[in-house]
Amino acid sequence: MPAKPKLGQNFLNDAQAVQRIASSLGDLSGRTVVEIGPGAGAITGALAARAAHVLAVELDSNLAAHLRTKFPPEKVTIIEQDVLNFDFAAASAAAGQRLPVVGNLPYYITSQILLKLAASNAALDRAVLMVQREVADRITAAPGSRDYGLLSVTVQMYGPAETLFTLPPSSFSPPPDVHSTVFRWRFAPRFTELSLEESSFLPFVRQAFAQKRKTLANNLRAAKYEPAAIAAALAGASIPTQARAEELAILQLAALHLQLDKEKAASPGEAAHIG
Q1: 79 exposed, middle or buried (CB, 10 Å; 0-12, 13-18, 19+)?
Q2: End-to-end alpha carbon distance in the chain
Q3: 178 exposed, middle or buried (CB, 10 Å; 0-12, 13-18, 19+)?
Q4: How high is the pLDDT of residue 165?
Q5: Nearest to residue 246, comparing CAs of 202, 222, 200, 215?
Q6: Which fold, 198-271?
Q7: Which of 6, 34, 63, 240 is the most exposed place for a label (fewest CB within 10 A)?
Q8: Are strands 99-104 and 32-36 parallel, antiparallel or unpaired?
Q9: How do residues 124-165 score in pLDDT, each as one tens digit?
């Protein structure tokens, strides 16, 4: 099947990589697996050999038709749909289990798909995903590293992510202009553990990382937090006044957010901010 560049299609043609990706999901016996963007079906076949059933979500109607002729419907269900509209919760309920996910993600909507998976975390168990190497570096980055930022914290708040391996352009047809990295993401949200509200903490993280070259305090002032509240919260969380967000681990960002909430509660007129 010819690839369509406008849909970000680069078909994996490395048989060893296909098996490594499938095996990275662990034991799939008795499991229903969701595959995002099955393409020509290379990974689909490896999944079908391991799992009870595969739900393959494919946007391209030509590829979907091809896949229906390639795999038996009792093993693989082809769902012709944009994955951003796919109902993971309904699929999980129908399967009676949380779902493993696998996919070679189109580079142009990688972030949107990651956010979709994060929002669907209650229905998901783990994911093995292939993305552009630079994106994977950001997803799995540790505090203080060059790649650590908003994407790192956002993904890692929904569970640990680890790099598995990287593939060169020659592993795909047509070859992309970049290397691709496979990473594993285990869904285990940390909001309850850290006494955080998802709806307020994630916007706070976006504010904290708004301008990477600025200090955390300057970013928070730009987000309309009062200087006195920022200073008190930084002190309460034992964070240096000149710290940058990229230097702080999730635990420190959580502590700062909770301290800012305390300052707001103590002096609502002075510590108010625009979220």
Answers
A1: middle
A2: 48
A3: middle
A4: 98
A5: 215
A6: Helicase, Ruva Protein; domain 3 (1.10.8)
A7: 6
A8: parallel
A9: 999 999 999 999 999 999 999 999 999 999 999 999 999 999
User: What CA dihedral angle connects 82, 13, 186 and 207, to 10 degrees?
Assistant: -60
Domain boundaries, given as residue ranges, for the chain: 5-186, 198-271
State both tokens at 125: 């168990």
Residue 56 CA, chain-centre distance (Å), reads 19
pLDDT in tens, 189-208: 999 999 999 999 999 999 99
Q: What is the 3-state secondary structure (H, E, C) of the chain?
A: CCCCHHHCCCEECCHHHHHHHHHCCCCCCCCEEEEECCCCCHHHHHHHHHCCEEEEEECCHHHHHHHHHHCCCCCEEEEECCHHHCCHHHHHHHHCCCEEEEEECCHHHHHHHHHHHHHCHHHEEEEEEEEEHHHHHHHCCCCCCCCCCHHHHHHHCCCCEEEEEEECHHHEECCCCCCEEEEEEECCCCCCCCCCCHHHHHHHHHHHCCCCCCCHHHHHHHCCCCHHHHHHHHHHCCCCCCCCHHHCCHHHHHHHHHHHHHHHHHCHHHHCCCC
Q: Which residue has the tokens 């992309």?
A: 176
What are 237's two structure tokens?
A: 């969380």
CATH class belonging to 5-186: alpha beta
Look at residues 225, 231, 235, 241 and name the one whose alpha carbon lies nearest to residue 275.
225
